[in-house]
């Protein structure tokens, strides 16, 4: 009986035992490794989803920054603050950390001592530079997993093995990471193995215990499954909270374009119909889609055919793995167009297949309007700056050019695109020490001014006024440099001063002429009286002579023998000549009354020559009387209707310029010489004034009549003499004036004057 029981037991237990042994063997050889792989994959996916949730939150903040709703600094601060508080896991101690691509640790809830430091060289006890590996994985693949040793949560104890997932957030250069301890997974797997071992041993001993263990193990597995589902629900709730807090409209699409999920912003915008809104209010994700139609066929887009086409085309590109971004215009219910910035990003599975598509949209109408207004203001400001006659140069706080107007280009020949980013002293070298002055104005925050700086602009020697205005705005440190060419003004001031001196000198000369004229007239009159009393045979003269013991005949004999009467004639002749010169000076210096009358052009020219004969310049060491004048005048020349003083001024100016040139630069021939010819051709009188001086080259000849052009040294001439002469002949008298010259062979000025004074009528009408 006993043996049968044993046999029966053997028959019952042996197959069961063998079955259990085989089952246990198969379990440990196949099921346990598979279970271990499943647990690890599940935890990896959990890590990946948690990090992606944080990345999505960061992307939302970046979109707010791009939309101008918050600053980049505020967004980063808010992100770090939020991430430090985030926890998940069974014990609520799983956390996230942030470091940047340079290795700086930005946030770590359990290692505050490392925050703000560079951890590139941080190593775990095995010598692994874990942060360096994180950065390498992100640079290569954008994300990845890494094993290393780390302290146990917040206990600060001995480091243990940990598996972490990191993913880069490119817009900010951040790396987001989170991890789980290998010990947790190993303990879980070890616990399962221990339970299976105990169960197997129990089954070998007691089949009832085997069943109980199987049932117990089933309940244990179910409990773990429930825990995992709960963790997933918590993760989904966290994701949903972050998802709904985003300001932009966000939708999750399937691969057919149907909406599986949308956030509160999209619901508020009216993208979903009433039924979909009701379903969304329960926080559910509908795997069949919220609508039977793809997103571009929703009624929300019905009035925007162009937007529909762009949406569908962008969706097709996203299915190929591309990330697309574009702007569409949508006609809203109030009849206004709103501009929506749309982006579509693919969500890939572990095999790189597109499983979902994230669609994001934000209303950028106000931002576009602000940009257009800002662009309009920039264009207007640019036009104002470029239309200014001053050189305007903007520089940053380093002294580099960031603004260059058209006048600066005209002056320097440097285009704005070439000048920008150059040091201001190199871009505009005409003003010495400009860079130092700009630096002083910026550092001292005060306006610097300097007037009448001598410089060269292009090929012109001129003067400039310089003003440097520092910019003290928080985001616009630098300065504006204004340079005004005041060369013409300086010349005008000098001319005005010279004119005032000449006016004063003219008045003084007129007064002196009057003062000289009076005694000169008395002298001539007295000489004539003396001659009459010494030579006339009158009763009074005879009586006076007899009283003196002489006769009139004896007196005349004495006067003739000593040539006293000849000397008296010389006195009269010299006095008359001096009186004539004084009268000419008074007439030339007197303000012109604009009297046009028929005049002998020969006499006008001769009067000018007589005035020039009295010209002597001690400084230039020339005397006009040493210059030979050859006259070639047509006989019986018809009178010319002209303004006498103006024509004299022209001839005198030509003679003085020629005399100075011959005195300073030499002449050809044995002595300096003028050849003055006057002819008539038709109804014109032609006056030629030729000298045998140094002449001039073609470049000077072309500019000789330009205002302010002079070949004399500074302070020796204004450059207005010939330009005024040209104006008198060509404008006032409707004539013409030319110059011919060859270097070393002298110069010939030719004047054509209408004889009929046709310009007189024009001046009288004016």
Architecture overview:
It is rod-shaped, with a radius of gyration of 55 Å. Strands 2-1-5-4-3 form a five-stranded antiparallel sheet. Strands 7-6-10-9-8 form a five-stranded antiparallel sheet, sandwiched between helices. A five-stranded antiparallel sheet has the order 12-11-15-14-13, sandwiched between helices. Helix 4 runs antiparallel to helix 5 (207-245). It is of the alpha+beta class. It folds into five domains: 2-213, Beta-Lactamase, CATH 3.30.450; 248-369, PAS domain (Beta-Lactamase); 388-485, PAS domain (Beta-Lactamase, 2-Layer Sandwich); 492-585; 593-765, Histidine kinase-like ATPase, C-terminal domain (Heat Shock Protein 90), CATH 3.30.565. It has 22 helices and 24 strands. The chain crosses the membrane at residues 6-28.
Shape, per Cα inertia axes: rod-shaped
- CATH-level-2 architecture of the largest domain: 2-Layer Sandwich
Strand order of the largest sheet: 2-1-5-4-3
CATH topology of the largest domain: Beta-Lactamase
Domain PAC: 324-376
Membrane topology: Multi-pass membrane protein
Transmembrane segments: 6-28
Keywords: ATP-binding, Cell membrane, Kinase, Membrane, Nucleotide-binding, Phosphoprotein, Transferase, Transmembrane, Transmembrane helix, Two-component regulatory system
Looking at this protein, list some descriptive labels.
766 residues; alpha+beta; Beta-Lactamase; 5 domains; five-stranded antiparallel beta sheet; 22 helices; 51% helix; rod-shaped; disordered C terminus
């Amino acid at each position: 009986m006993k043996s049968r029981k044993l046999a029966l037991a053997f028959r019952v237990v042996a197959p069961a035992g063998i079955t259990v042994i085989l089952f246990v063997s198969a379990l440990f050889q196949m099921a346990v490794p598979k279970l271990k792989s499943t647990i690890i994959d599940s935890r990896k996916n959990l890590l990946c989803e948690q990090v992606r949730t944080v990345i999505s939150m960061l992307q939302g903040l970046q979109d707010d920054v791009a939309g101008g709703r918050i600053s980049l600094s505020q967004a980063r601060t808010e992100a770090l603050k939020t991430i430090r508080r985030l926890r998940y896991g069974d014990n609520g101690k799983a956390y996230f950390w942030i470091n940047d691509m340079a290795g700086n640790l930005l946030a770590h809830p359990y290692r505050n001592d490392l925050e703000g430091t560079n951890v590139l060289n941080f190593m775990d006890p095995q010598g692994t530079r874990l942060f360096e590996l994180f950065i390498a994985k992100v640079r290569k693949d954008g994300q990845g997993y890494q094993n290393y040793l780390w302290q146990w949560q917040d206990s600060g104890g001995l480091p243990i093995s940990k598996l972490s997932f990191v993913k880069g957030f490119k817009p900010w250069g951040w790396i987001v990471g989170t991890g789980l301890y290998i010990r947790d997974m190993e303990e879980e797997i070890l616990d399962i193995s221990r339970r299976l071992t105990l169960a197997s041993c129990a089954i070998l001993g007691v089949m009832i215990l085997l069943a109980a263990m199987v049932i117990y193990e089933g309940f244990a597995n179910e409990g773990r499954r429930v825990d995992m589902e709960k963790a997933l629900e918590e993760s989904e709730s966290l994701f949903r909270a972050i998802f709904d807090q985003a300001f932009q409209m966000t939708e999750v699409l399937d691969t057919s374009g149907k909406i599986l999920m949308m956030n509160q912003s999209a619901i508020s915008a009216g993208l979903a119909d009433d039924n979909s809104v009701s379903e969304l209010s329960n926080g559910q994700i509908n795997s069949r889609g919220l609508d039977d139609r793809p997103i571009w066929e929703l009624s929300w887009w019905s009035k925007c055919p162009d937007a529909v086409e762009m949406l569908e085309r962008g969706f097709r590109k996203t299915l190929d793995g591309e990330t697309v971004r574009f702007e569409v215009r949508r006609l809203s219910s109030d009849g206004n167009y709103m501009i929506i910035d749309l982006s579509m990003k693919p969500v890939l599975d572990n095999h790189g297949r597109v499983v979902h598509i994230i669609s994001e949209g934000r209303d950028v109408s106000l931002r576009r309007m602000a940009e257009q207004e800002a662009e309009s203001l920039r264009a207007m400001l640019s036009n104002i700056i470029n239309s200014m006659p001053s050189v305007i140069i903007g520089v940053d706080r380093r002294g580099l050019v960031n603004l260059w107007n058209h006048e600066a280009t005209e002056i320097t020949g440097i285009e704005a695109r070439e000048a920008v980013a150059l040091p201001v002293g190199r871009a505009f070298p005409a003003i010495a020490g400009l860079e130092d002055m700009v630096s002083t104005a910026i550092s001292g925050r005060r306006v610097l001014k300097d007037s009448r700086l001598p410089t060269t602009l292009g090929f012109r020697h001129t003067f400039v006024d310089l003003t440097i205005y520092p910019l003290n705005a928080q985001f616009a440190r630098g300065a504006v440099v204004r340079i005004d060419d005041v060369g013409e003004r300086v010349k005008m001031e000098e001319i005005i001063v010279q004119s005032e001196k000449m006016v004063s000198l003219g008045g003084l000369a007129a007064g002196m002429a009057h003062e000289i004229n009076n005694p000169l007239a008395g002298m001539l009159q007295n000489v004539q009286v003396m001659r009459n009393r010494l030579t006339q045979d009158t009763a009074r003269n005879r009586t006076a002579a007899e009283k003196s013991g002489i006769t009139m005949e004896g007196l005349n004999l004495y006067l003739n023998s000593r040539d006293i009467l000849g000397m008296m004639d010389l006195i009269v002749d010299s006095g008359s000549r001096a009186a004539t010169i004084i009268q000419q000076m008074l007439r030339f210096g007197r303000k012109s009354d604009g009297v046009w009358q028929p005049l002998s052009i020969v006499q006008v020219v001769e009067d000018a020559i007589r005035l020039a004969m009295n010209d002597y310049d001690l400084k230039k060491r020339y005397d006009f009387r040493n210059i030979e004048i050859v006259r070639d005048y047509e006989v019986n020349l018809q009178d010319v209707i002209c303004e006498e003083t103006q024509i004299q001024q022209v001839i005198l100016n030509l003679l003085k310029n020629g005399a100075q040139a011959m005195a300073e630069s030499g002449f050809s021939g044995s002595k300096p010489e003028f050849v003055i010819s006057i002819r008539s051709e038709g109804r014109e009188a032609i006056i030629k004034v030729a000298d045998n001086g140094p002449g001039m080259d073609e470049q000077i000849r072309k500019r000789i009549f330009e205002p302010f052009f002079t070949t004399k040294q500074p302070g020796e001439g204004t450059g207005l003499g010939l330009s005024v002469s040209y104006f008198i002949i060509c404008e006032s008298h409707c004539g013409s004036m030319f110059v011919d010259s060859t270097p070393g062979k002298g110069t010939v000025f030719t004047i054509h004057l209408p004889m009929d004074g046709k310009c007189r009528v024009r001046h009288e009408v004016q």
